[in-house]
Amino acid sequence: MMLSKDRIGGVLLLLFCLIYAWLSQDIRLLPFQERAAFHARTMPEILSILGIGLALWTIILPGKSERPELGGADWLKAGLFLVLMSAYGFTVRPLGFILSTSLFLMIGYALLGERKLVPLVLASVPLVVAFWVLMTQGLDVFIEPWPGFLRE
């Protein structure tokens, strides 16, 4: 069996789905939910089963025979995105959702090559505000929008 890009992706997907399935069993159920047909674990279980099936299909069935080429990837940009995502995780609580997420998107777009400030702001801020409104008003999920010093 030759290792191709597809098979490596399938192995990574299989690993992710197996971990996801295992962690989904940690979701606590209320006593009346244990015998219900649909509960908090149902969708994670279905998604993990579908993902495992697709991953196995990708691994087992013959695909392209090309070898993975890692030399052409922009590893610096990938590393910068990992740093950016980590920084976002650390700043979302102190800076608030709207400011932190807007900065995250603007810096991400800049890393991808956009250099003009107006498109960066127009592609980030309205999207973040619309998502915040959808989550807080439509789905009734509280997300702190502003930094701590602006809250009171």
From TrEMBL:
* Any matching Pfam family: TctB
Q: Which domain of life is it from?
A: Bacteria
Keyword match Transmembrane = yes
Among its keywords, does the record have Membrane? yes
- Recorded coiled-coil stretches: none
Which InterPro entries does UniProt cross-reference here? DUF1468
Residue ranges constituting the DUF1468 domain according to the UniProt record? 8-142
Q: Which UniProt keywords apply?
A: Membrane, Transmembrane, Transmembrane helix
Sequence intervals crossing the membrane: 47-63, 97-113, 120-143
Name recorded for this polypeptide: Tripartite tricarboxylate transporter TctB family protein
